[in-house]
């Protein structure tokens, strides 16, 4: 049990360290990404108003392939939805995850879709 608590504590510390430098504004909202074992969640948040502008996830969808392929699809859809909401530039919030693999695939797809960060 102590090992699990230690792991959760380290994850929370990494997340807080990342979030201490990142804040979303009206001009550059925050792109927050969460990747679980089964699903991918991405949302664009204006922290000054505490409001979610765009939200996309894999929940309730039949997407084939690995989670990396799903991350690419979610990144492209997020960029498309952000364009319709009038968002061009964002600040990328990766949370406690490394910028590697699925996180990188989502970010690259969002960049190809027109988001700048």
Explain briefly what this protein structure is.
Helix content is 41%, strand content 20%. It has 117 residues and is of the alpha+beta class. The longest helix is centred in the middle third of the chain and has 19 residues, at 67-85.
3D structure, described in words:
This protein has 117 residues and is α+β, with helices and mostly antiparallel strands. The chain has one domain (2-112): 2-Layer Sandwich (Nucleotidyltransferase, domain 5), CATH 3.30.420. Helices cover 41% and strands 20% of the residues. It contains three helices and four strands. A hairpin with a 4-residue loop joins strand 1 (30-35) and strand 2 (40-46). 30% of the residues are buried. The model has no long low-confidence stretch (mean pLDDT 94).
Please give a handful of descriptors for the protein shown.
alpha+beta, 4-stranded mixed sheet, 117 residues, 20% strand, 3 helices
Number of strands: 4
Indicate the CATH class: Alpha Beta
Q: In terms of per-residue confidence, which ranges show pLDDT below 50 for 5 or more consecutive residues?
A: none
**Mean pLDDT reading:** 94
SSE inventory with pairings:
Elements: H1 2-19, E1 30-35, E2 40-46, E3 51-57, H2 67-85, E4 91-93, H3 102-112
Helix pairs in contact: 2-3
């Amino acid at each position: 049990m102590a090992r699990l608590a230690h792991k959760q504590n380290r994850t929370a510390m990494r997340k807080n360290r990342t979030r201490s430098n990142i804040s979303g504004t009206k001009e550059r909202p925050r792109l927050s990404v969460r990747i679980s074992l089964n699903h991918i969640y991405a949302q664009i948040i204006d922290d000054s108003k505490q409001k979610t502008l765009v939200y996309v996830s894999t929940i309730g969808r039949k997407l084939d392939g690995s989670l990396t392929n799903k991350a690419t699809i979610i990144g492209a859809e997020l960029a498309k939805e952000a364009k319709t909401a009038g968002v061009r530039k964002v600040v990328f919030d990766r949370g406690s995850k490394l910028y590697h693999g699925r996180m990188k695939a989502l970010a690259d797809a969002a960049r190809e879709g027109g988001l700048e960060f």
